[in-house]
Model the fold of this input.
Amino acid sequence: MPKMSRAERKRLGVQRPVASAVSASIPENAGDIIDEALATVQASNPPAIEPQSRLVRTTRRVVARDVAASLDYSAETAMIATDLRRIAFWGTLFVAIMLAIKFSGLL
Done:
């Protein structure tokens, strides 16, 4: 069986011994022993095949409805008109009072 590549060893989480002072006590054929052990483990426990996840598109379908015809804004329009009349009345009254005070000579 061919030796495993670095990517395959990394995927399995097994690291090959690095040459250092500690590796002097490791036999020269340790890499071959590790490779054989990994091959045995792989033969007895084949890697689990992950199912490919399908991309499920969820699209929203817009149903054409006549929303404008079903809503009634007459009550809201009446309230807004009343509020605008009230604002115009009080605004005009306060401006008239300010002008009267200015030209009356009280201040």
The mean pLDDT is 78.
